[in-house]
Amino acid sequence: MEWEEPAIILRLSPHGESSLLVRVLTRRKGVCHALVRGGRSRRQAALWQEGNLIMARWKARLPEQLGNMTAELVRPTASFLLDHPLALALLSSACSLCSEALAEREPHEPLFASLAHLMGVLSVSATRPPVALYFRWELILLQELGYGLTLDRCAVTGARDGLVHVSPRTGRAVSSEGAGEWKDRLLPLPSCLLDEEEEGQPQDWLGAARLSGHFLQRAVFAAYHRPLPAARDRLVTALYRLAEDGASGQDEEERV
């Protein structure tokens, strides 16, 4: 049995002297594991990097077997970001979340498309990486996993404007008017999560990280009795540095 699919490399681990075990997100077949013979060789080193977009070819005698994978490089995302730590942290966090949260061989075409789009924007905007777009992508991940948030109207008043909070229990938006005395118990809803044209500032990104992180931990990773991936924690730490220094993403990425 064999197939050929566009795929995003999520995780790599050494196997034997020269091979790799890879975990990829494919467009139509979801997350797949495979063995790459000679993947650690100098000739293949540039291809097998986390975050790269590839055309993967998988082959095995039976569908349930590990299978062998070869590939052609489509977009070397990782190499574009080597000199841009904040952009690289965004890419690493996205790959880690997909690798650890998605079940194997379950199709997630919308998620694949949104991740490929995020990677494309990162590749061309590495000096000013799209942090707000990344956190909007985390909301897509939650939705794809069956835990989408309801952010289009207030859960209390029904209003569509002035949405500034989210209930940590229901995942529904709440307006300033509807929050009332419960305001301090609600999560912040940064406007950059609602407006695709707004990038926001470091404090907004930290609010977005707190919001999506709460539901990722509660709805997804708690089921596996695991914390959020270390790569995401490193991203949040970098954003805290940005907020503390009062610097722009472009200035800070040289220090992250």
Automatic annotation (TrEMBL):
<keyword id="KW-0227">DNA damage</keyword>
<feature type="domain" description="DNA replication/recombination mediator RecO N-terminal">
    <location>
        <begin position="1"/>
        <end position="75"/>
    </location>
</feature>
<protein>
    <recommendedName>
        <fullName>DNA repair protein RecO</fullName>
    </recommendedName>
</protein>
<dbReference type="InterPro" id="IPR022572">
    <property type="entry name" value="DNA_rep/recomb_RecO_N"/>
</dbReference>
<dbReference type="InterPro" id="IPR003717">
    <property type="entry name" value="RecO"/>
</dbReference>
<comment type="function">
    <text>Involved in DNA repair and RecF pathway recombination.</text>
</comment>
<dbReference type="InterPro" id="IPR012340">
    <property type="entry name" value="NA-bd_OB-fold"/>
</dbReference>
<dbReference type="InterPro" id="IPR042242">
    <property type="entry name" value="RecO_C"/>
</dbReference>
<comment type="similarity">
    <text>Belongs to the RecO family.</text>
</comment>
<dbReference type="Pfam" id="PF02565">
    <property type="entry name" value="RecO_C"/>
</dbReference>
<dbReference type="Pfam" id="PF11967">
    <property type="entry name" value="RecO_N"/>
</dbReference>
<keyword id="KW-0233">DNA recombination</keyword>
<dbReference type="InterPro" id="IPR037278">
    <property type="entry name" value="ARFGAP/RecO"/>
</dbReference>
<keyword id="KW-0234">DNA repair</keyword>
